[in-house]
Amino acid sequence: MSRLRVMMLAAMVSILTAQSAPAVAGAAITTAEWTLYRDKFLDPAGRIVDNANAGISHSEGQGYGLLLSYLADNRGDFDRIWAFTRTEMLLRNDGLAAWKWDPSATPRVTDTNNATDGDLLIAYGLALAGSAWRRPDLTTAAATIASALAAGGLERVGDAVLLKPGNAGFGAADRQDGPVVNPSYWVFEALPVMAELAPDGPWRELANNGRALIATTMKIGEAGLPPDWVSLKAAPRAADGFPQNFGYNAIRIPLYLIRAGIRDRALLEPFAVHMADPEGRLRIVDVANGQTRQLLDDAGYRIIPALVACVIDGKKLPDSVQSFAPTDYYPSTLHLLALSYARRHEPECL
After folding, report:
1. Which residues of 311-339 are buried (b: 16+ CB within 10 A; e: fewer)?
2. What is the pLDDT of residue 5?
3. Which reaction(s) does the protein catalyse, per the Swiss-Prot or TrEMBL entry (predicted)?
């Protein structure tokens, strides 16, 4: 890739970032918050440790780590996370990351399939940092991943462009109920940046199809909420072999919509109505009958329905979710993503 092309890409990413510039001054993630997160989940080698999942690392976590360290403006930690990701996980011959790295296994990479949400997050974090910090090496790496995603991570089924959860194992030829998708893999805020990095990809179609998919899958069963995994072989339904839940994957869908600036009440209101109990605890829901299977009380989970309520109805975030204390990797990550968005774009929520 020519230096001129890299400079143009960085400039376009900068423009996209400026369009969603902070509404208030100050860091999106404070030094104290990042230090708490880093000390619990970032090991010296540069891998983000999923402490609730046997201490493994995965491409999703590395992507989140890049994004959060960028939002904290910590360039040293960003470079550590990127170095581990580049040398330990970007091992496939198609430019995408192997999704699972296990410190207890030999070899450490125990599943070489990719996870497209992880690939999106990695490319997005690299692109943002490359533009903000004038690092053409990061912009070039982001463009390489975006092009690889456009080439292998997207699939056209009928009139729709879909995001495959992984390049192998989810298509119509791979499963009796295929194609299978995961609506929470659509990282909507990243898609306009991918369109600048890899302009030949159908990214606008992908974004539009993702929104339509979420609206459609809310109508599966009685829950009024989308399941984590969806079969699109015929009419959308919960995919075989997975828990039939609005679960740990799908709970981040409204956060991704909001962070992308999507304030469509028709999309967001079902989450406000159905995803939390009256005390604000997040519900894991059986999509078939709408019954609660589990209640999640961690502040990193509670902040998501609270942020939805703020965006669509102007309700302030409860004091209990406005301060950050790390617990487990996943809710702690969601907590910082939600807080950083509120600070930059919804200060009236605080």
Report:
1. bbeeeebeeebbebebbebbbbbbbbbbb
2. 56
3. Endohydrolysis of (1->4)-beta-D-glucosidic linkages in cellulose, lichenin and cereal beta-D-glucans
Per-residue pLDDT, 89 = 98
Residue 76: per-residue pLDDT:
98
CATH number where 67 lies:
1.50.10.10
Does residue 310 form part of some domain? yes
Q: Tell me whether residue 279 is one of the annotated catalytic residues.
A: no
> In the prediction, which pLDDT does 65 show?
98
CA–CA separation, 296 and 86 (whole Å): 34
Structural domain count of the chain: 1
Catalytic-role residue among 88, 117, 119, 196:
117
Instruction: State the DSSP string of 151-165.
Output: HHTEEEETTEEEE-S
Question: Which residues neighbour 69 within 8 Å (Cβ) at sequence distance 6 or greater?
Answer: 34, 38, 75, 77, 78, 81, 125
Say if 181 falls within a structural domain. yes
Domain membership flag for residue 279? yes
The CB density around residue 290, as the number of other CB atoms within 10 Å, is 15
Q: Which domain holds residue 273?
A: 3-345
Round to whole Å and give the CA distance between 2 and 336: 36
**pLDDT 10s digits, 194-219:** 999 999 999 999 999 999 999 999 99
Q: Which of 33, 50, 60, 177 is catalytic?
A: 60
264 is catalytic: no
CA distances from 346 to 69, 259, 303, 307 (A): 21, 10, 13, 9
Look at residue 350 and tell me if it is in a domain. Answer: no
Chain-centroid distance of CA 22 in Å reads: 20
